[in-house]
Amino acid sequence: MRLTTADLQKRLNPEHSKRLPFGLTMVMALIAGAIFIFALAPYGIWPVALLSPAILYALLLPEMTGRRAFFIGHAYGTGLFSVGAFWLYTSIHVYGNTPVWLALILIALMGLGMGLFHGFLALIFNRLVGKQPLSFAALWVLQEWMKTWLFTGFPWLFVGYAFTEQYWLSSLAPIAGVFAVSFVAVLLAASLVELLRRRAGYLIVSVVLLVISTALWLINPQWTKPKGTPNLSVSLIQGNIPQDLKWLTEFQVETLNIYATLTSTEWGRDIILWPESSIPMFQTDAWGFINEMVKIANETNTTWVTGIPYKDEAAFDPSVDKYPPFYNSVIALGTEAEGLYKKQRLVPFGEYIPFEGMLDILPDLAGSQEIMSYSRGSEQQLPLQVRGHNLGSAVCYEVAYPDTTRKNAIGTDFLLTISNDAWFGTSAGPLQHLQMVQMRALENGRWFMRATNTGVTAIIDHQGRIIERAPQFERTVLRGEIQARVGHTPFMRGGHYPILLIITLLLLLSYLGKRATANHK
């Protein structure tokens, strides 16, 4: 059956929608959240990023109780994360040796937990602020921002990422970051619902913002500029080491041989970059191999940058500590190279145990096994020094944090990110991860080198465009050039503060407007 515009207007009209059974409304919200995955990589159907939040907006009716609004929002968020982050199933079941049924339950519990963000969004929208597109978009950005820090953060599945390569909207990213892109997209989505309800006023605001972003795209302001030095030749090494073998002691020598062999034809390039933990042992156990690589690097005028677990024995106090602190790190060695970067944002339960110190009150549990966690690197770290340039770093998961990457990018000429996405197999996870790197390049106006174990290894320019890309799940080398750039985008200077200030003002005005309207009734 074909729906006419009149049919859609009728179905989106509050008087009609309130007659929908609540169970059906919940299912619609769950599906609306679940389909959002098609807006992101690898599918890239960006209109879904408008449709998905538009459905949630249409379902949150003015006459609805706060309790019902919360459950509808929670259903949306549960669908969003249970499906959108289903790539976690591979690491939980395949590499965590968790039974299928338990892995599915854990994914569902994760979805229910993350769904609370949208649940409270819907509750606040229903009870505290005016029910209109501006407040809805502001609350949407607020919950996305909270995902970057609350309970250590899980900053995934943001609406703005769907528009990474839609330059008519992504032109806002260098100005105010991914949240500005999310805000305009969600505002447009909600405004289109109001248009179908024959209330077109809010669409004007959306159109104005779209015109501004499109004008920026057409003008193409260069927030950063080339440093004026020759481009650097780079070789990114993709070892494609199976995850179930990577950390086996008996496979360590084979891993080193694989990377050394792949690199043997690349000496003489300006920079050779190895992925996260490509040396699968502490530097104290690999000095012989490291010294051999450094010798070749110096002889061939090459900078060698690699991921490696780094044990800081100088900081070890046996009277206080059980073992020396150790870090997931990047080290620069060879010609014109200096520096060590220690990862700041660690993966909960993967790289550290949250509230580990509380285990001390349970001596039987704490003593049953030795629990060792990576330590966090300081937020005040100097960039790597590479061939007369400052090189900013982001290790794996932490590139998903816009503000962490922004701070690491200040004062640098280009950026690197290294990762091991083998944990997530052939799922959408690694491709979503790559899309985030593209957004970080846009926000900071810097080129990125991205070296990974199994893919996606890529070179990305300052406008978020993939210049070179290696195939996934192949043992290969990606060769290319990178450009050093200087200057600061507005986002690098102001971070999230401008967009957070705007949404705070919008929510305050919406709250005051709602109270004033209520007092006049």
UniProtKB/TrEMBL annotation:
Annotated TM spans: 20-39, 45-62, 69-89, 101-125, 137-159, 171-193, 200-219, 495-513
Keywords: Acyltransferase, Cell membrane, Membrane, Transferase, Transmembrane, Transmembrane helix
InterPro entries in the cross-refs: Apolipo_AcylTrfase (IPR004563), C-N_Hydrolase (IPR003010), C-N_Hydrolase_sf (IPR036526), LNT_N (IPR045378)
Organism: Psychrobacter coccoides
Protein name as it appears in the record: Apolipoprotein N-acyltransferase
Gene: lnt
Gene3D superfamilies for this protein: Carbon-nitrogen hydrolase
Membrane topology recorded in Swiss-Prot or TrEMBL: Multi-pass membrane protein
Function: Catalyzes the phospholipid dependent N-acylation of the N-terminal cysteine of apolipoprotein, the last step in lipoprotein maturation.
